[in-house]
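Data deposition worksheet. Section B asks for the primary sequence of the deposited chain exactly as it was used as input, without tags or linkers unless they were present during the calculation. Section C holds the resulting structure in token form. Section D is free text for depositor observations; keep each observation to a single sentence. Incomplete worksheets are returned to the depositor.
Section A, Depositor: J.P.
Section B:
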Amino acid sequence: MAPIWLLVGLVFFFQNGFLSSGISTNISMKPSEVQIGGIFTFNSSIGKVAKVAIEAAIEDVNSDPSVLGGTELKLVTKDVNDSGFLGIIEALKFMESDTVAIIGPQTSVMAHVISHIANELQVPLLSFSATDPTLSSLQYPFFVRTTQSDLFQMAAVAQIVEYYEWREVIAIYVDDDQGRNGIAALADKLAERRCKISYKAPMKAEPTRDDIRDVLFKVLLTESRIFVLHTYAKSGLDVLDMAHYLGMMGSEYVWIATDWLSTILDTNSPLPPETMDQIQGLLTLRMYTPDSDPKRKFVSRWGNLTKGSFGLNSYGLYAYDTVWLLARAINTFFEKGGNISFSNDSRLNEIGGRSLHLDAMSIFNGGKLLLKSILGTNMTGLTGPVQFTSGRSLVHPAYEVINVIGTMRRVGYWSNYSGLSIERPERLYTRPPNNSVSNQKLYPVIWPGQITQKPRGWGFEKKQLRIGVPNRVSYREFISYEGGDSFKGYCIDVFFAALPLLPYQINFKLIPFGDGRNNPSCTDLVRLINTGI
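Section C:
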């Protein structure tokens, strides 16, 4: 029980800021090596790519004496196997080993917890894949996101919804920090465009097939047919498999998957044929990285690094750039007179004692200067310009809009600068920004069911709209009942002409009101509506 109480005590300790300077240990001003840590899951789609990319970046940095002037970066990585508990333990171990910065963690859930430790021990935490928009610099000053925030991804999704003139979507997501906060950002971005989430369908982080079926059964009872799927790789494919089984991949359905799907397709292609069949017609997003000579060279080098065992995804490019960002920041740190030194905290002994080795954990005295150097770095990497805004987001957030047909077919781009476009974002940056609705454009999409006509995104299969039509004896050129289900007249013509213009489908029945001998009372007809008849 002692380790458990220790962990609880430490989280309380860090969250409440009980930290004071103690005994200080110094390392030479320009050491021969600087240790950095890495925390991620080695066997995941993102983690296995990031591990190779980070190790390649370390090798490239250390082979270029102009970067750190003879100082070598020493990387120590830890596999936490998707466990938040292991992530905390490994982060604490790094704090015992004179680590100046940590690359990771991989998930937003873990980042929320470890950021408390990083804050108090003043060790910068650079994550290339924690995209939760609530990981803010105000609450977590030592957390640095070196990838795009889901705030921008959800802005892209909202603009796609508006572009196709849909008004309501259903959000299917994992019920954790990343899922909930991503969908909250989507709700805000949709509201800005007078759209909304009509139904939220949360799932467990590791749902069973029965769990997924139960969630989709509830979704089937709703009317919207526009689904936004914000989840992780394995559970996302399981959801799409069950949706296919339940007949939810037909011609009236729209599925928009966040970038987890493009990450799988980039990393693990080709997927099994039966899996590819189930995801045809979907839209997904992929973080956009402009083409460049360094990027092309790294992509061609990737096969040798992995021996062709898996592909390169966008997170791998951001992971590679994260190492170079950190290396250049460490160099700036030294140029500004930074000294790598650590101070023990005497209060840690009071809550744990020397028997628990808490006295080995130390504060990085140069943490604030290194953090400032990181945020002030301006470089060009494999992902394009690497520079932080005043809000600590990377400049020029942009995504590719992908239509899954065969494999992946790009139908356009989204940028925070000019919205949806068929032109590459870097070309738009040379012009004045134009986010007007009339300026938005994507190439044609092939939707589920192999149709090219835009789905209406709405279904009334469970409801029938009963429409009362006055059975008049005068002014029959406006409305006349011809018997059975036949109605004629100007008003009827206008009604049927307007139906195709609606962004959703209506299941309706026209019902005559009146005996055909006297003009019926419209007041009586309205009263019937009010009583629900």
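Section D:
The radius of gyration is 29 Å.
DSSP finds 18 helices and 22 strands in the chain.
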